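Sample pair:
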Amino acid sequence: MSATSSLDVTAAISDPPKSGSLHRKIGWQGAFWVASGVPALVLFSIGAIAATVGKPAWLAWMLSITFGFIQAFTYAEIAGMFPHKSGGASVYGAIAWVRYSKFIAPISVWCNWLAWTPVLAIGSGLAAGYILLAMFPADAVINTWQITLLDLSFLKSDLSLRIDATFILGAAVLLAVFGIQHGGILRSARVTMVLGLAALIPLMLIGIVPILTGDISAANFLPIAPLAFDEAGNVINGEWNIEGWKLMAGGMFIAAWSTYAFETSVCYTREFRNPKKDTFKAIFYSGLLCLAVFTLVPLAFQADLGLGQLVTPAVLDAAGNEVSPAVYDGMLAPDIYSGMGVATALAAMVGGSQQLGNIIIIIMLVLALLLSIMTSMAGSSRTLYQGAVDGWLPKYLSHANEHGSPTRAMWTDLCFNLVLLLMSDYVFVLAVSNVCYVMFNFLNLNAGWIHRLDRPNWERPYKAPLILIVLGTILSFVNVALMGLGANIWGEGTLWSGVVCAALILPVFLYRHYVQDKGVFPKAMVEDMHMGDESGVKKRAGILPFVAIAVAVLIVVYMQQL
């Protein structure tokens, strides 16, 4: 496929959107604080992973953050190549893929947004749940009333759209964050620095205190065997057969949504005062912070709670159908899986039995969730903004206000997440969005070597060692293997729901490219693609990008068959 036939760049070039632009107002420290909400993502799935994987849960987290740290070096390199662009690694990766197919490139941008934006709904929902449970008993009317709007049980059992107190309070949280972000990146960075200092303290205390006090029992970690149950529903040590590996793969799959996420620190390249120096520092130091939190907090969490045992057996009817599920304690408790009980459990680890201490820790954990919401809205809105500037998404998203905030993209984020906030199962939302996140990571890790081949002489303020580019590429295939094997343990429709969501970009892109832009890309995007006869820049990868995609698809299909 020639460059001309695939991209139509010989045709007339459309004008770039005439609107406000982003402002260069922060250094790497500002991006670090904006991205400091990423460690709080451990609160989103620590309970679900522990309740699903069992004793190897801590190992799943440790391996996952190690993978994420290795991959970050590829992202740091490609981000430094485009210091004038915002939107994060997906935008820089799309520039590599667009030379080979105009229909693959927007999937990178779209999947990155679909992966990041649910943080707004999940984070605000958890924050609302923490507040309500801290103020009222679990069986209080305010915590139990709801109005069901739509039954979605065909996707996952007991999934629905509903209005309840969590939705109302969560919506208020989202609107508050929107108001802060409306003032631009500098104000957002300052607010997140304050929130970061307040929110990261409890996470670090939770991770460090049990180690210092020696409150770590080997029985809660060993033997490293997957979770299993006997016929009576009692907890037993499983075997490393296909079912055991499926649980481990599912745990690492869902952990990746949190542990890989510090790549968002390169989302603000267009707003760095010195992007050549700040880009690498932002992602490197953000990675170090995440390496500590995602290793220590799951260890401490598991050390304190333990795996758990059967409390109340399941109740069956005469036909053998389950009337009410079995109830367990420890990491297998229902409120730990849903995430709503995680704050209380973590608070007890630090605050002990003192009610005031528990409340203070819960408040600080709510601040941590607010920080993660700030991080997500800042990053995901800029992905939408840059996607519109580059010609992937509708033009209306390419507007920025007088403070340099992409307000129309932020409104889109907000409205979309109000719908997600209606969902009764946040773990399912997280799992579906992570299918998109794995697809984004695959495309962008492979963009590293594509850029190396196509732009060998381009200036790279940071050039990753070749071994890290190779390891990042290998991990891109490991990630899709984990997705293929483990995604559906979070609900039978998880994998296909994610694939369908990813495919929704195609009609959106077709509308933008062929209806709004008449089949041509904006001038600035064509210049970024360097489709002309620039010395040293050309398509050198041949069919290798398509081979990589084909291999990834085969891996997913094979793992699904297992």
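The chain has one domain: 28-561.
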